[in-house]
Every structure is written in C-alpha cells, then in structure tokens.
C-alpha cells in the first residue's frame, strides 16, 4: 500500500478514486485528470438521469470508457465496480476521518440547496432540506449510514483485485501532498517545451 509521499506507479493511466460521500472523490479525480492530461469520466454524471433515475445507457457508457487506455473515475455504484476495478491499475483511497467527510457532505448539501446549483448534465437540484427527516436515502443520512463502507478495503482488494496498486490518503492535506508529487513527476516526464 502506498501513501502520500509515494509516486504514482510508472505508466499508470487508468485510475479509480475511492471513498465514501464527502471524501472529495470527484474533486480529486478532476484535478488528477488535469494534472495527467487524461479524461475524467464522472460516475454520478453518467449514472443520474431525469427525476433521479438511472440512465438507461449507464452500463454501456461505463463499459465504453473503461475499455479505453487512459481515464480517471470514481469507484462508485456496485453494478459497475467489477468493470472499473477490473481494468484500473491504481486505486486512490480517500480514507478521511468521519467528521471531515460528514462536515463536507453537510456543507455541500446546504450550498447546493441554497444556491439552487444544478447537478450534472441533467441539471438535478438538491431536494428541500426537510426531506432529510422523511427520506432515508437523503444524502446526509446516506453518508452517515455508509460511513464505514470502505473500512475493509485493503483486504477486499487483495482478494478480488490483487493487480490494483492502492494509494491510501488519510486527510485532505495528504491528498494535496500526493497530488503535488504527481504533478511534479508529470512535469519532469513532459517533453521540453510542452506545457511551459
């Protein structure tokens, strides 16, 4: 298992970001995509359709990008995890404290609701805050219920996907340190005059 000071394995071009709600999977995936110059396929964007329904093309869309040689995405949705993990070379695990993740979920939910921020291509809106009381799958309740879902991740990967290199980051600070290292290595690998 690698940590914040370890480099990304050479030639790694298919990368998954794992973590529970609020860990910052999509943010890190986007930054990693920019740093490495590889496509980011946002899993929530592929999954959600109108009225909070699953897009009919979800499985096909995931299978299509997974078949390509370079991508970064989030390790989400049980039905496609075998596809993504089976093809990925590296998994980055954002294993932050529960308080950090829950605070981020709450802050993001309030921001999206009060600003009426549309989410993903379909333009979904955060439901009214009172729905947290009635909807057991409201994102805040879901985040709390699933907060321990990745506690056994290293053992599960060793059994099901032993080919994956696991990078474990335990705080946002470690994630920044690791990404800075990836960026530095990528700048050294870049041909002279490119990106400068």
From TrEMBL:
Entry keyword set: Kinase, Transferase
Transmembrane segments: none
A molecular-function term among this protein's GO annotations: kinase activity
Gene3D superfamilies on file: P-loop containing nucleotide triphosphate hydrolases
Keyword Aminoacyl-tRNA synthetase found: no
InterPro entries xrefs: Cytidylate_Kinase-2 (IPR052922), P-loop_NTPase (IPR027417)
PANTHER family xrefs: TOXIN, YALI0E33011P
Protein name as annotated: Adenylate kinase family enzyme
Native source organism of the sequence: Bogoriella caseilytica
Organismal lineage: Bacteria, Bacillati, Actinomycetota, Actinomycetes, Micrococcales
